[in-house]
Amino acid sequence: MIRKRIIAGVAIGFLAGGLFVYTTLEKSEARETYTAYVKETYNEQPDIELSRDWKMGGYIGEVRLTKEPFAGTYILETYGDGCIHDNVLETYWEREAERTIHERLVSQGILKEEETVRAEVPIGVSDDAQANVSPTPTSIYETNPKTYLDVSIMFHEDWNNTDEQKQRILDVMREVESDVYWIHFSFDGKPGGNDDYTERYMMFTREASDIDPSFLDVRTIEDLNGYDRLYGFDETTFMTEYHFDGTPIEDETTQ
User: Phi and psi for 26 in degrees, rounded to 5?
Assistant: First the structure.
């Protein structure tokens, strides 16, 4: 009995040791592969932090680039076909879009300096350009922004259902409509107060859907008044639908 226990213990020890060696080698290979990729693609040799990729398998790499215009921290991931993907160009394009759209809206007097523009470019858009990122990356505006660019605008004000507020939304639409396919407006709080737990927002898309109308078809304040859906996240109800005047839209099924 004792002998069997000893043999079992030795077997478990060998198995654990083997897994440790395999994991160490796998991690080392991942680091070397990512290092070579970054050197070839971005001409840098930074340290790479690895973490287990539980979704795709293998390891995700985190890398900090130091050379402009790509200075920043990014993610490296190996897909099932062995190809390495990163979010460098997507992040660069998002920064470019955020900066230029913000500057454009502020210069036109539509946006306040402290108000925020956020842009999103889906992962994978830069796949065809990754081999030619130096010396100057391709601008997002030189790809296909009507397909790829999603913009969010944060207004630093409560929604009080005024024509001035509605006109500002229309002004933003007209200024950026040639560059984006989806606009998402957010407001700080609810009418008459600034509630940290409430983010009320509205969305318009280039093409009308069952939920969100086309911002290309919304040309006047009267058009905006026909779109009465504002969504709110709050501490208790999680999501509430509001009219423009801030009153909740009652659930017809409960009436």
Answer: -60, -45
How is residue 106 written in tokens? 């502020």
CA geometry: angle 83, 84, 90, nearest 5 deg: 125
pLDDT tens for each residue of 148-161:
899 999 888 877 77
User: Using CA atoms, how far apart are residues 129 and 184, in angstroms rounded to an integer?
Assistant: 28
The answer to whether 118 and 151 are in contact (CB under 8 A) is yes
Phi then psi for residue 141, to 5 deg, are -75, -10
194-231 CB burial, b ≥16 within 10 A, e <16: eeeebbbbbbbbeeeeeebbebeebeeeeebeebeebb
- C-alpha distances (whole Å) from 224 to each of 108, 154, 160, 161 are 21, 18, 14, 11
User: Is pTM beyond 0.70 here?
Assistant: yes
Which one-letter amino acid corresponds to residue 58? G
Please name the residue ranges forming H helices in 64-196: 88-107, 145-148, 163-176
Which three-class secondary structure state does DSSP give residue 48?
strand
Q: Which two tokens stand for residue 164?
A: 């001035």
Most distant CA pair in the chain, distance? 87
Query: d(Cα 208, Cα 226) in Å, to the nearest integer?
Result: 14
**What is the number of residues in the chain?**
255
Nearest Cα to Cα of residue 209 among 177, 181, 176: 181
Does residue 230 contact residue 242 with C-beta atoms inside 8 Å? yes
Separation between Cα atoms, residue 103 and residue 100, nearest integer Å: 5
Residue 140, Ramachandran bin (φ over 0: left; ψ between -120 and 50: alpha; else beta): alpha
Output the CA torsion sign for 103, 162, 156, 176.
Answer: negative
- What are the tens digits of pLDDT across the range 170-203? 999 999 988 898 888 887 655 455 554 455 667 8
